[in-house]
Automatic annotation (TrEMBL):
Pfam name, any one: DoxX_2
Annotated source species: Micromonospora globbae
Localization per record: Membrane
Top-level taxonomy: Bacteria, Bacillati, Actinomycetota, Actinomycetes, Micromonosporales
Name of the protein in question: DoxX family protein
Ranges annotated as spanning the membrane: 69-89, 95-113
UniProt xrefs under InterPro entries: DoxX
Length: 115
């Protein structure tokens, strides 16, 4: 894995980890929109767990590539689902937010794990 791929993967993992922590800490800028989109409150901890697991999986993938690939694919599905949720809620102005998390995960997958 190249230095660039390693840096992008670590950055993506930290970024997604920040997102998970924001859900666990019920940051207003995260849970407010979740409520607005109609995401049940009982799902919020599980969404945080999914992001945290994906973040850890990306880091583990630096040493065990198949884990990184699986984590990245899972996170891609997660954030594509987030885009769909935002679109279904007709909050079109919020679409860029899940894309900000999706992009570095896709970059990490494209740069580093196929080897």
């Amino acid at each position: 894995m190249s230095t660039t791929a390693t840096i992008v993967t670590i950055a993506a993992a930290l970024w997604v980890g920040f997102s998970a922590a924001s859900v666990f800490l019920r940051a207003t800028w995260v849970v407010g929109p979740l409520a607005e989109y109609g995401v049940p409150r009982s799902w919020w901890p599980w969404l945080g767990v999914a992001k945290a697991a994906g973040s850890v999986g990306l880091l583990v993938g630096l040493f065990v590539p198949v884990v990184g690939v699986l984590a990245a694919v899972g996170l891609v599905l997660y954030f594509v689902g987030a885009v769909v949720t935002v679109l279904r809620a007709r909050s079109y102005g919020h679409v860029p937010f899940p894309l900000l998390y999706l992009a570095p995960v896709v970059a990490a997958l494209a740069l580093g794990f196929p080897g």
